[in-house]
Amino acid sequence: MPGGLIVLGSIHTEMVALLEDRTAPLYNRVTDTINLTHLDIGSILIILKDHAEPDAKHLLFLWNLFEGVPKFYWDCYEQNVLAADRKTLLRRIFFESSSPLRFEAENWFLRELRGRYDVVLKFVARNPGRMHNDLVQAIRQASGNPDTQVGGYLKVLIERFGLIERKLPVFAKPEAKRSRYYLTDNFLRSWLAALANPVSAIAFRPLDELIEEADQRLADAEGASLEKLAGQLYEERSRKGIGDFPITDRVQGFWDKADTEIDLVAVNATTKTIRFGSCKRSPTKLLSDVNNFQQHVARFLHTMPKYQGWDTQLVGISPVLGADQRKILTTHGIIPQDLNDLTAGLG
Q: If you ran DSSP here, which 8-state letter would residue 308 be given?
């Protein structure tokens, strides 16, 4: 049949003007939508192996910043910093006058948002995982307006822009109230939580001091990113038939009103095996949290009697684990896993 194919793609406001404005020639003409996802972690590993020495901590640093967006890795390649140390990369990519990503967040995301949206985004970026009520109260205090309709802004940021996601505990019903809120995009979260303020202060503060501040803030954010990265690695390994734990349910964390909190819960219903993970950026904190982790798992199993007869496995995850640290975890009945273990065979 004769016809034509028109493919459009741009930032949100421009797409709305083309497709949703009733006076636009393409109004109501969309027949299909393609959602382009990020590169998987295996693809990122291939890029790093070609242009940098494989390093688990460096992978976490880059993934925390750029996740799987090809453009950002290309920018780093063009600036010859894919293999550079943290501060050199930050300087070249964000802090110099010719830095390619110095204005990226403003141009890609934030110029489309005005007023309270900006306040909500910044707060969620700097306080990931807050419950709804805590989030609403804190944003109202920060904005200085007790009447701020935070729920409405959250709804738009979730449903229209897709910049925030509402997460429920694994096994929770969709209408459950114990939801938490996170920014969906690593780059935007890193920008708002760690980079925006230092970059905006270039004109009146020493550059080295600003880069040090940004680096420390990014390091603080890498703990939450490690949880997200570990969950995606479990899913990707299972999808590719790699590793020791094929999963049958989506990997997710767990929390409840009794303060039970577990970073990762993976389920294999076929073999009736459930694996609980504790993720800590610092191996020292991972080791010191062993007893607390085990107590949280015990409370989970008490709350969820369905899984009490299943094979229960505990795993401790950190970017890099040494032989002594692995031995201590194993002694406590916890499987040691670092990012080298979880990325083996992917790239």
A: T
The answer to whether 264 touches 276, Cβ cutoff 8 Å, is yes
Name the phi and psi angles at 201, rounded to 5: -100, 10
Give the number of C-alpha atoms closer than 13 A to the C-alpha of residue 3, restricted to the C-beta side.
Answer: 3
Mean pLDDT of 168-192: 82
State how far the Cα of 97 lies from the Cα of 95, in Å rounded to an integer. 7
Per-residue pLDDT of 67-109, as tens digits, reads 999 999 999 999 999 999 999 999 999 999 899 999 887 776 6
The candidate with the shortest Cα–Cα distance to 194, out of 131, 126, 274, 265, is: 126
Residue 128 CB neighbours (<10 A): 19
Altogether, the residues listed in the chain come to a count of 347
DSSP string, 94-130: IISTT-TTTTHHHHHTGGG--THHHHHHHHHHHSTTE
Q: Hey, is 47 helix, strand or coil? A: helix
**How far apart are alpha carbons 306 and 302 in whole angstroms?**
9
Region at 246 (left for phi over 0; alpha for psi -120 to 50; beta for the rest): beta
Beta-sheet pairing, 249-255 with 180-183 = unpaired
Residues with Cβ within 8 Å of 107's Cβ and at least 6 positions away in sequence, in order, are: none
CA 166 to CA 175: how far, in whole Å?
11
Structural domains of the chain in order of their starting residue, each with its CATH number? 244-343 (3.40.91.50)
Question: Under the phi-then-psi rule, with left for phi > 0, alpha for psi from -120 to 50, and beta for the rest, what region is 161?
Answer: alpha
HSE value, Cβ hemisphere, 13 Å, CA-based, for 137: 5
Cα–Cα distance, 117 to 108 (Å, whole number) = 15
Placement of tokens 């900006």 in the chain: 118
